[in-house]
Amino acid sequence: MRIRKHDWKAGEVSLTVEGSDDLWTLRTVIQPGDTVKGSTERKVKVGSDEKAAAVRRRVFLAVKAEKVEYAEDGSSLRVLGIITDGPDDVPRGDHHSFILEEGSEFSLVKAAWPKYVREKLEQATKLDAALLVVLFDREEARFFGVTRRGVEELSRLKGDVAKKAVDEKKAANFYQEIVAQMVQYDGRGLYRHIVAGAPAFWKEYVERELPAALKTKTVLTTISDVDRTAIRELLARPEVRKLLHESSTMRELALVEEVMAALGRDRLAYGILDVEDVVGQGNAAAVIITENAFAKARSDGEQAFVRLEDALRRCEESRGEVHVLASDEAMRKIDGLGGVAAIRRW
Fold this sequence. Notes:
The chain is α+β, with helices and mostly antiparallel strands. It has 12 helices and 16 strands. The chain folds into 3 domains: 2-124, Pelota, domain A (SH3 type barrels), CATH 2.30.30.870; 131-246, Nucleotidyltransferase, domain 5; 251-344, CATH 3.30.1330.30.
């Protein structure tokens, strides 16, 4: 996403959608009551009342959002609302659907920009380094894509376990298969970094097979198992931590680990009632909330949504941090705690 210009005091920012991940972010940044302005297609009547014909043409409209719908294939975002401004021949108060997709340019106006919403938007303008994660041993290799949307398992390979010295060639071929698969995924141009983890010394065999181009972007580390849960184990490895600031999903998973650690130390409040209490005391070092919790609050009505936003605002006013989780992998555990949690200062 690109911010073309902004006036935070006036509440307006002009944006360009540069990819489907931007639409994933905007689906929660744009909220009911916000105004979306830009060029859009609309049917307008041409001619006299008796012989008027409806034709589609591009017009510049301002629409006050009532509902935001995200396409299942991630290709577009539909903002439905009431027309508040536009050409003279477009009636004010009529409903209109604003379609945002890759390449769309528009302006978003909010009555106020909470710090956490502004930071979320600004973070989306930075290149998000999607990661290719490879977990392997001599029997199996699993490939995962880690993007802003979450963790997706891409494929698996099964190895032919070498039981005798004469079978070592089979094992060597398996590591070559792993590297060939890594090269194939890297060729798609989706991943800026590759993290390959294996128990014991198996990583050395893959390292030997890596072509020079892949060695410069691959971090090799040690894990205990090739199970999906080992992805979190990777977060604790020092050689991987330097990549965390470039991957939003990995950052979110690291935040979940902090929440679980606070729970173990009895320093965590969770659920809206307890979080409100901690925030009211000025005792919230950080509030972590999922996009699912936001969606539920909106569906529960204006009062529930205002109550939630008020708690987040008060957290920021007391110099606490607010983090909104968007990836499925990170949201799962926090949703199990009611969708919102606060790490206490004391």
